[in-house]
Every structure is written in C-alpha cells, then in structure tokens.
Amino acid sequence: MPSAQEPTLNTMHPIPGDAGPDLSLERAAWRVCRARRARVLIDGSAYFGAVREVLKRARHRIVIVGWDIDSRTPLASDPSDTGDDLPLELGPFLCELAERRPEIEIRLLLWDYSLLYALEREPLPRLQLGWTSPPQITLCVDGLIPVGASHHEKMVIVDDSVAFCGGLDLTVRRWDTSDHDPDDARRVDPKGEAYPPFHDLQLLVDGEAAAALAEVARCRWSVATGHDLGTVQADTDPWPRDLEPDLREVDVAIARTRAPCEPVEMVREVEATFRAAIGEAERFIYIENQYLTADSVRDALIARMKQRPDLEVLAVVPGDHSGWLEKGAMQAGRMRFVAHLRRAGLGDRFRLVSPEIDGKTGPVRIKVHAKIMVVDDRSLRIGSSNLNNRSMGFDSECDVIILARDEERRSAIRRIRDSLIAEHTGATTDVVAEALTKPGSVLERLADLNSGTRRFVAVEDDPELDNALPDTVATLADPDRPWPEAISLDGLVDRRSRRRWISKWPVAAAALAVVALVLLWRYSPLEEWTRLDHLVGPMRVVAASTWAPLATVGVYLVGGLTVFPITVLIAVTAMVFGPWEGVLYSLLGSVVAALAGYVIGRIAWRRSPSIWKARDGRVGRLIQMFAGNGVVGIAGLRMLPIAPFMFINVAAGAARVPFLDFAVGSALGLGPGIIAFNLMGVQLQTVMTDGRPEDIGILVLLLAGWIGVSVVLQKLINRYAGPLRKRAK
C-alpha cells in the first residue's frame, strides 16, 4: 500500500551540461542503482505483451508516463495471444482491471501536446481516458514546461517494483514484430490504415532501479498536479513469470533532461552521460536513433575519434523524415552533423545507414524510432532521448544506462547489440558476433552481413534540405534550451547589419515584448483570462452594447496586438453571438487584427529593411515562398500552424507582401477554421450548459469534421508546396 513518504523536488538536482570531459558515467548520471533483473524488449510486440502481463499482476498502483497515451492501443495483435479474458485495447483493459481490483490506483500522465501534433493524437484524450473511466483512474495532461518544449519520457511503473523505460509510448502505430514484414496485415492503426515497419526498444528493470524510476515519475506527477504520490510497499512480484532476464544483479545509471521552469531546475544529465559514455569508447559505437542533430554529441564524437584512431561509429537512422518542419530542421540538421565529421577527416570511420527489407512490391525502409547507444561492450543506453539538441536541454527525457564492468555483463551487452544488427541485416547473431571479434575495420565487415532480403542501406540526404528553412525557424524547432535563450542575434541578422539592429532598439524591444506577451498568456496569472468561462461574461457585456459589432472588432484588434490566443476569442464569440453572427464578427475581427499587424511590419521594414534579413537573406523566405503565389499562397499560409497569428501578420508586412493579396488571402485562409470554431463554440456552450451525451457526441463530430477539412486543405497545400519553393528560390 502507499506509504507516507513523498518525493521532493530537491531530488532533481541539476547536472550541468558543461561538465568536464573526464566526468565518469557514474558521476554524470542522476543515480546509479542495482537492478536484480533487466530485460531488453525489442520492438512493439515484445513490449506491449510484457506490459500487459505486468499490468495484470499489479496490486497497488500503475503509473504510465508518456509523450502520448492512446486508449485504442492494442496490447496484443490478437485476443488469442493474451491468455486472459481482459479487453485487447489499453483503455478498456485498464477500466476492466480497475473494476476487478477496486484497491488499485492508476495514474496516467501525458504531454499537453502542441497543435502541430493534433492530427497524430487521439481526439479528446480526457474524454477517452478520464471522464468515462472508473474513479481509480486519474488522467493528467501536463503542460508545465517552457513554450515549445515537450514531455517526452516513456515509462510504465507498477507497484514501484517493476519499471519500463525506453522509446515506445503506449500509443497507436507502434506495434510491430522483429520480422518487420512489410506485408503484415496486423500492422494497422485504429482506422484500419496500414503503416510502415516500425522499430523501437524498451528496457524492463526491477529492484532499486525500478524504485528510482518510480521516484522520477512521482516527481513529474507532483509538479504537474500539485499532489504527491506516496511510495508503494509491494508484497508481490509483478515481473512476468515467463520472461527470462538478459542480465541479473546489474548496475544501471539513470539520466534525465529538464528545462528550467519553476519549480523545476535545469537538468542536463542526458547530455552529460552521452558525452561521458563516448569518452570511454575504444573501438566501436553502435547507435540507433530517430534524429541526429545534437551539437554536443557531435563534438564529443569528433574529439574521441581523433584520440582513438581505431574508433568507428555506425548510426542506424530512418531513411527519410516526413513533413516540411521535420525535414527542414531534423533531416537537414542530420546532414550538417555528418558534414562536420567529414570535414574533420572522420567520414571513413562514421557510417550512416537505414534498415531496409524486401516486400511484395519492392524494398521498404523500416522506420527507426529507437533511442539506443552501445559503447563497445561497456555500456548500453535505452531511453526516450533522441540525439537532437532538444533532448539535451529542452524536452523532458529519461534514459537508463546498463553499466557492464565485468566480463559476464559485457558478454550480455555484446549479445544484445549483435542481435540488433542481426535483425537489420538478416544474419544470425552468431555470424554477427564472429564478424565483430575479428581484427580490423568493423564497418567493412558489417557491410558484408547483408542478406538477400534484409540489409543496411547507406543514407545520403539531399543537400537542398540545408536551405529548406530559415535559420531562426530551424533553431526554434531544435533548440537545446528554452526559446528566449536559444535565439541569438546571429540567427536573425547578418554580421553587416548587426550594428544597425542594435541601433534600432525600439524594434528589438517590440520583438522582445511579443515574446514576453506569449509567455504571460501561457504561464502568468493572465492565463486565467484565456479560459472560456472567464471571457463569456465580458463578451456578453460587449454584445449588449449599442456598438456591439464595432466593439467586438475592437476586442479582436486589442487581442491581436497583445498576442492573445485568437482561437479562444473565436470560440467565445460563437458562444455569445451564435453561429452566424459569430462567424461574421470573428472573420471581420480576425482580418482587421491581421491587417494591423501587417501595417506594423511594413512600418518597421521602412525604418530598417535589413533587420528582417538573416544570413543570405533567409528570414522571411517562408513568407515569400507562399506570397509568390498571390492570394492562394497567402490563404495556404494561413492554414499552416507554423507561428503565432501576430508573428505571421508582422512578418508578411515586413516581407512586402502585396496588401490586397494579404487581405483577401487572409480572409480565405482564416474562413474555414473560423466557421468550424464557431460551430464548435456554439456546441461547447450547449455541452457546458446541459452536458448530455448526445451534445458531447455532436461536439466530437464537429471536431472530427474540422480535422477532416484541415487534412484535405493541407494536402492541397502540400501538393503545390514544391512549385512554390522552386519559385521562391
């Protein structure tokens, strides 16, 4: 049962990212603990099956922490594989478990995600996982982090005695077997749509290591909710009965990343332990990671490879990334990462590859989502941290590192590493082991392991990606610290115009004021005024006035100039004025606010044209790219959630977009979203008043319809993005 002992925030002491190069792995980590048993679970089938077994054996508390948690996640590919009579999907499974065991507590903590990921996530997670669940299940959506950051850990803790930690969330489009059969009919999402082969790992530990991970989860819960969870004194063993450990009585180090955000201090243990582990490397580093952009890791690799002329690195990554932002920031960043190694003369000892498998219609790339690093046979790292800058100091992360300090444990790490290489190449584990024990180049021998149907394929990224995004946008997408610190003058202006930027201090002050207002609406007591229940009353006063239309437009104008969330204003307008007047007033107010920002941008440009140019004139390229297609281009830009409403307006004015194109394009682009938000706002008022199930159902249908229209419009925009990009160049 839970005890009175509570977690305290002072357990989250910071480890600086600028720690010396001689810092040991043990000292760089938050804590080193003993695991009585440890098992590496390769791919979703193994992980979901193990999670199901552990959850069934829970007696007191289940804590699930994730970047995403989806109630529709199947914990097995088929009911006949479960060995029980519980539901297949996560949400119903947890509900039934809670009904059968009234004494159990179930705590679910997921990131309060950005709108950029709305189409990837389960609609209304609170409804699916919270409102309709038994009282023992508590869901918290956590947004207490700096603007733009994400909670990225993936952990499951049962009774404080068994813990999973790694790269897999309990969400959809993650299940796969290690066969990665491109034609596997079981690999479909809740819509019945097939998705590509997917590779990732999770680590299962017990003993002191599980208790330490439980403490990490309790601290996260405490910060997010303001409520402390006591420790659990387990009286049973939740470890799956038929799951044999890979290692016994092994030391594991735990490393975290936390961006500074009251009351949490900065923690950069992930970065410090990456650098410390690389500093121990002698012959071979094996990496699997979704991203490869981290400057500090790149520099550590270059330094160690120069110290050790025999050291080689194999990095297994996705062959390609999807989406303009991911390509322009992460894939272009990966290209620059590799370019630095080549300029240092290390290109022949660093190899970037992607796993590929043959299907009925030809070769298929396997999506690598894993976050692991094996350094010789000394350490094995599995966690949530990508090898990008975000994971070093911006996003919340948690990794577990198995420390092998004797031959028995080193042998186990070699066996795990070799099995991963065997999975990707089609060779047997014994063949891989034999190849890696021979003297000479490891990379040359690995190239000979590819089978007829499975292989490593060299990755060569498109050089044009380096110019896909302005430097400032790329920095905002992959910062290693909160945004105000990550953006420097170097990213906004060229060296020749820096003095003119400084001399134009009023413009600089205005830019800082915009950033400050965004933070105030999100993290200060002003956040209360972004809630609908606070705004309905004042808006009704506006509606009752003689000058209601003009006053409403004035509200939008003030809101736009103060960077107030425009979607909140649209929703409350619909609730007060109804759907038809609401659409008219919202559209008129939004366009007036947009034009005001546009005028500000034009005036600022006239005072100092050079301040809107980055190195080689890249700032504003995104605006110019769409503006080159006139009204249609501006309408398309309005449908992309790339930046705050006011920022786009000011940037368009500074980029000298034609006034008529901007005005008409803004009206056309904002229109569909405003209509959808007004309809949802009216329905939300009904839900808040009556709360009947049928009213909630209508609201869900309206939301689904809006998302559907957005998807169609987005696809049309993407279809013409290529020609627009060429025209902008």
Set out the fold topology.
Elements: H1 25-28, E1 31-42, H2 44-56, E2 61-66, H3 90-100, E3 105-111, H4 125-131, E4 137-142, E5 155-158, E6 162-166, E7 198-199, E8 201-206, H5 207-225, E9 247-258, E10 267-268, H6 269-278, E11 284-289, H7 295-307, E12 312-316, H8 324-343, E13 350-359, E14 362-365, E15 367-368, E16 371-375, E17 379-383, H9 389-393, E18 397-403, H10 407-425, H11 429-437, H12 442-446, E19 454-458, H13 471-477, H14 483-486, H15 489-492, H16 498-503, H17 505-523, H18 532-544, H19 548-561, H20 566-577, H21 579-607, H22 621-627, H23 630-638, H24 645-654, H25 659-689, H26 693-728
Parallel strand pairs: 2-3, 3-4, 7-15, 11-12, 12-13
Antiparallel strand pairs: 1-8, 1-9, 2-5, 5-6, 6-8, 9-10, 9-18, 11-16, 13-14, 13-19, 16-17, 17-18
